[in-house]
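User: For a reading group we're discussing how well predicted structures match intuition. Take Hemerythrin-like domain-containing protein. Before you show the prediction, I'll give you the sequence so everyone sees exactly what went in.
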Amino acid sequence: MTNKTPTKSALDIFTALIADHNKHRKLLDKIEAADKDARLEHFAAFALEAKAHAAAEEQALYSVMMANPDLTSKARHSVAEHKEIEDLIDEIAELDAGSKKWSEKFAELKHEYLHHIEEEEEEMFPAADEELTTSEERDMGKVFKDRKPKEKAAATVGEE
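Assistant: Thanks. Here is the predicted 3D structure of Hemerythrin-like domain-containing protein, as structure tokens, for the group to look at:
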């Protein structure tokens, strides 16, 4: 599914996450359509955004989900996928953006990332929404919005 429209309060965790996912979809499309020089610029923007998003999401949402026995396995699965995606980003950052290997790895990253966010939006978020209160979701939205800029400032393109 693409470009989902958030339907809840702007302070809601799921609204914030889906808004980021929509931004990431657009960045991935820009990378795919760009020439070599623009590709690097768009990829760097995506890498920082995706890493900051994942770290803030883990702190705001997954930490709460881990404490709920009905949601623990979904949270663990998503955290594992975040690590796989971050590893792919770091691997791509070390490659020549004009190479066939870069294009192949980017195609793999795009496929994996789109699969991940679709799974979150269609399976994980609805399951969490059923278990969590509106107040918890608002609190998590605030944590996410607070943490993401801090995580983005600490993020790197490629391995440290």
